[in-house]
Amino acid sequence: MRILLIVILERETLRSLADMNPSQLARRTERSLHRPLQIAAWLAFAAAAQTAFAQTATTGSASTSSTEQSLPAVKVSASSADDTPLHLTTPVSNGALGTRSQLDTPFSTTVVTGEDLANRQANKLGDVFAGDASVTDNSNAYSAWATYITIRGLPIDWQNGFKIDGNPFISYGITMPYENLERVELLKGAGGFMYGFAQPGGVVNYVTKKPGKDPVTSFDIGYRMDGVISEHADLSRRFGPDGMFGARINYSHEQGKTYNAGDINRNSVALALDGQLTRDLDVYFNAIYQTSRSSGQTPAIYVSPSYAGTSLPATISGGTNLLNSAGQHLNTSLQLYTAGVKYQIAPDWSFNTSASYSKSARDRNESTLTLANQAGDYSDYRWNGDEGHQDIYWQGTFEGKVKTGPFTHQLVFGASIQHQTNDYNNAETTAGGTLGAGNLYVQNPYFFYSGSGLEKYRASEINQKALFLSDTVQITSRWSLLAGLRYTNYDQETFAESGATTASYGKNGVVTPTFALMYKLDPLTTIYASYLESLEAGQIVADTYANGGSVLNPLRSRQYEVGIKTEHERWSVNAALFRIERGASYANSQNVLMQDGDSIYEGVEAGGSVRLGRNWQVGGDIMLLDTWYAKGQTYNGKRVAGAPQFTAAARVSYDVPFVPGLQVGADAKYTGNTSVRPAGDLETGGYMLVNLGANYMTRIGGHDVTLRAAIDNLTNRRYWMFQYDSYIAPGDPRTVSLNAKIDF
After folding, report:
1. CB burial class (10 A; 0-12, 13-18, 19+) of residue 715?
2. Has residue 59 been placed in a domain?
3. d(CA 509, CA 490)
């Protein structure tokens, strides 16, 4: 959760703002654009001041009761979102497991609602899960690292770990338009049964906004340091006989100068259509289209096996432009189209089928700075290329209930087909190479300009065909048993530029099971023990390694978890003990990416939130994690790279009683030291980030208005952020964000 900032102005200042006419207010706002804190104060309080003082002037010395009656009406959002911030009763998609609430899902999950995203003013995936201690931020909103996070010390599979409304897409380099989302769901750990081949870090599912019963017309405008302006519009309507058809469209745009002197220009539109053709038959169509152009992003920093030093160089600010060099850019595009049918066969049985097509592309000119020593010397290697991905996906499922004697069975069974292609540019069209040597604390002098539209070839194809079945047996009113099985035929091929097959892997009958035992301590409390298996695709080795272009074998993972979830009107708690066993892969001293033994992750995570009185909400989250390499030949006993031993998050919010509609608060997150390389000889060091913010809800001219202000990294802490095995990045600097929304 974002932590909220309250900026108090003196009564005379408020009077001066209230007495201004609209043109004077506009001129004052224009003069203040370079002073973010003043903008925050104006956005949060000017409208309220103008309304309050105007009413005071007309009523004179009114009584206390009449003064209370003259206060502007305040739109009150559903209290459940505040009183139960873990959203454990929220239905979530679990792939082959069907749709069930977090409370009834025997795995660790997190849900972040659209309101949470707006209050936090999330700008990258790490922001979305800032309140979850199990999630470590490795992301950057304006570079190819946009969706890099680790969960329980494990990365998310960039090819199979991201979904939109349950449909796969390649998210590499793409920052989602969070304004267009209803919520974001996170399944932690192995998801082999639910979603097929994937790394055991977890699965992120973006849920887009759909047409509801009530009409929606809203517009908001935002500002983010150092000069990014954003606009967002949301329109939803139902029409036709008895409102049988629905349509919702969201459009967002951001453009301007980023905190590290780069540039961003992003446009996104999301469309959702549905039709309730009969009482039992629904159809729907969803589409997303986004383009983004950015430049001046911070390069990737690679700590190679030949790095000379016992610690990392002194930290630098993520807001610096010293590392930026001319010509660097990242241009991305995303398209996703989904159509589906939902049919209620009987009161207890339904059939859902959907098909989707997604296409994403990247055109990037990117530097990789290979660190040489602790003094910060590096070699600047520039890479330029075009990449494209396509995903065609179909799934059909039956969900229902049957009884056999005293037992009730909740059944889900179905099938899915997925065809994925990856296209990369030809080697002869790739330009760049080593530009020269430099130092982290001196301006990068190099430049390399390149165009786009490079010729591409089909580099790999992946096909998955699966059958799945799960049965949740209600043994007694408290005890239930889940058993699930996924049967997959998997094929993966890689190709040379000539079209010849260079490597292939095919396996029929891959079985990934799941089992869970659940006990209802009471209707709002679930205790569970679960077991999962997962298989991940063989990794195509990047060109930065000595064996670049080769394909590694698939890796099997196993997950054991025991947990508890409980949600009540004023408090919520969840906790889990887990162990994940995954095949290990890392670069050896010859910079060869190899598979060797296992990586083990054991830990405990716990979180909760409580409402104190009428005005206070307090929450916290922790994770203790122990990791090591086992059964290998090289790094046995060493900590696994990218896995912090301890993380903790805390948040507090306060509803200001004397200013109805105003909520202020703060949050903090501590990330412990993290091993950068499998050798275990370098660490990032621990760091704490503190954020502040404020939300103010009021009515102006008969319309609901929401004003938001936030400061990320309040203390402007400098720190090294782990991004990927042997890669680091400077953490984001202090950033001020503002937003004003009006509902018509």
Report:
1. exposed
2. no
3. 8
| 329 in any annotated domain | yes
Ranges of beta strands (E only) in 29-140 are: 91-93, 99-101, 109-113, 135-137
Q: How far apart are CA 297 and CA 144, in angstroms?
A: 9
Q: From the CB of residue 643, how many other CB atoms can be counted at a distance below 10 Å?
A: 22
Residue 203 is which amino acid?
Answer: V
In order, the DSSP letters of 365-381 are: EEEEEEEEETT-EEEEE
Does the CA dihedral 235-240-243-246 come out positive or negative? negative
Beta strands in 568-683 (DSSP E): 571-587, 593-612, 616-630, 646-655, 662-671
* Placement of tokens 């989302």 in the chain: 181
The number of distinct structural domains making up the chain is: 1
- Minimal CA–CA distance to 216: which of 182, 267, 167? 182
Distance between CA 516 and CA 531 in Å, rounded? Answer: 6
- Residues spanned by the domain of 390: 79-743
Please count the other Cβ atoms lying within 10 Å of the Cβ belonging to residue 78.
9
Q: CA 307 to CA 299: how far, in whole Å?
A: 18
For residue 742, give the H/E element and its range.
strand 735-743
CB-CB neighbours of 700 under 10 Å: 13
CA distance 513 to 485: 4
Query: Which amino acid, one-letter code, is at 312?
Result: L
| Cβ contact 432:383 at 8 Å | yes
Residues 695-733: pLDDT tens digits? Answer: 999 999 999 999 999 999 999 999 999 999 999 999 999
Instruction: Establish if 30 belongs to a structural domain.
Output: no
Q: Which of 266-280, 352-366, 494-508, 509-523 has the lowest mean pLDDT?
A: 494-508
CATH number at residue 434: 2.40.170.20
Q: Is the dihedral of CA 322, 723, 196, 91 positive or negative?
A: negative
Q: What is the pTM of this model?
A: 0.86
Q: How many CB atoms lie within 10 A of CB 32?
A: 14
- Residue 563 maps to a domain: yes
Query: pLDDT tens across 77-108, in order?
Result: 333 334 466 888 887 877 778 778 899 999 99
Longest dimension (CA), the chain: 87
